[in-house]
Fold this protein.
Amino acid sequence: MHSLFLFLIYIEAVPLYLCLIKTFTSRKTMAFIRSISGLRATLGTGLQPEIISRYAAAFAQYCPEGPIVIGRDGRPSGLWMEHILIGTLQACGRDILLLGIAPTPTIQLQTEHSEAAGGISITASHNPQEWNGLKFLGSDGVFLDEQQNREFWHIVDNFPHDSSENIIPGTIYTVDNAVEYHCNAVISSIESITKQSCSLGKQYTVVVDAVNASGSKFIPRLLELLGCEVIPLFCDNSGMFPHIPEPIPQNLYQLSQAVLTHKADFGIAIDPDADRLVLIDEHGIAIGEEKTIALSVKSLLSMIDTNEVQSVVVNLSTSRITDIISEEYKAKIFRSPVGEINVVKAMKQHNAIIGGEGSGGVILPSCHYGRDSLVGIALIIALLRCEHSTLSKISDSLPKRYIAKGKSNWDRDPQLLYKRIADTLGEHPHQIRYDDGIWMDFGLSWIHVRISNTEPIVRFIAESDSEKNAEDYRTLIESIVMDSNT
């Protein structure tokens, strides 16, 4: 049995942000990724029942006393993973609050606002169908941070589980009101800050692409409560993705066409665990995932009635559109390393009223400390109603910034790459940071290169005041990555 888990042994020399091990078979390569964002692996030899049981037993030992919340994003593989988690946790004497198919932010909300000791979301987020994984939450509903992960992984890797015969099996409690609870929590939290009703105003017609996953019931119900007419596109809750699940423009053609066909006011796209939000305007055009947090920040800051200076937190890879908007409302802007837990920690440190990431994630502490597509939807609808405008017009009114992104496979030490980038870019940066890959600020432009927390790749991104400048930076970085990868 010990040999089944040899590849899980944590190597201290490997940075925490990525512990990636590939298991080779005669037919193909399976990937197993353990990072600050949780556990993800391809099905088959990459993700086996023994692994799920092992992590569940370790989590039961890691958490303080209390039940553990479990939910899944709807992928068919999530069902057998749920059964293993339940059985293992029960065998460890843990009670379980079972949500079934539910967004990760719902699991976070339930964990934070209950007596739960922790939570587990069964999801691989935006990864394709052949992937699945686990996201681990503390009793506060927040992902485990770097130190907490080290402690948890130490338990996983040192086989400490004691299957005592004296343990009384835990009880399963099914949570039946998760949809209404989450939707009402979002609405009430926004109304409590802004003192404005979320449901009054123009009735919008909205097309929803939930990739048939965890948002299939939650998003339509929220829209109904907000006074909208809902046209479900891919909302059958089957977990069978109709297209590549990452909500980026090239994967949203069908949604764009549906918006035009139904003459809808806008379209909504989310990823399988519904923590990311992307919008399609009334012309069937994706306005870009970077604008989700920018519009949400604009909405909240424009509606709050206070003279207090507010704080906003985004990550290093987020467009400066949010910075410009925050400054217009006299708010302070802070930047954290990429990763939800990193944004949340910075938000708590600076007492931020809102935060998020340019990948389409919005965090509203008055609701809960987690990226939540439902929060973003409610805030943006409020903005549309307040400005009596269309999504395209509001989007076009935002500051003009241009982003160019790229990615490449990567399976080696990234420090050499970061050094080559710093040496190659001869301009003197206004600021350079190494707390999340390499981030360099050149005034009107910035670049960010980092190893992904969720895939075996290196991501690189550049932003500037002109499309050409951004693309020139991206091309230069790509050439350095290619040279360093050979």
